[in-house]
Please model this.
Amino acid sequence: MKGVAMLIKLTKGLGFSSAHLIIEHEKCERLHGHNYRVGVTVEGEPNEQGIIVDFLELKRILKQLCGRYDHHILLPENNPALKRLSEGASTRIAVRGREFEFPSENVVWLPVVNTTVEELARIIADEVVQNLPYPNVRRITIWVEESPGQGATEERRIKD
Model:
């Protein structure tokens, strides 16, 4: 199979439930949540054993990533309209004149301007690429769906 690119997909049983808000969006600036679904497509050359990636290893990586966000409040740390008022046992924030307080253990700060499905797909793709130990992988595509039929994909070309 040397030189032949193949695709594998992992699309079932992966996801997380989280709350978030999208700052400066008319409707979605209200605190709300989603039951996100996550999937991945991996393209590469099968190795000597005929494997592009081990499904169990790929699933472990994605489950670990999803577990970080599951049942947490996702907040954007790069949005200038969000002000951190205090952090300790509780995290207090202000967004355009409204204040929120959450148990700090329930908050995940993400390096984004807004916690959109597009940004979640990007962050998850970055982390999968960093943790995928297979030199024969050419490209990965991550998709994140916030509701049925509504999501984003992010593609990473690892090598040509």
About this structure: The longest strand covers residues 32-44. The mean pLDDT is 93. The helical segments are 55-69, 117-131. The domain at 6-71+116-157 is CATH 3.30.479.10 (Tetrahydropterin Synthase; Chain A).
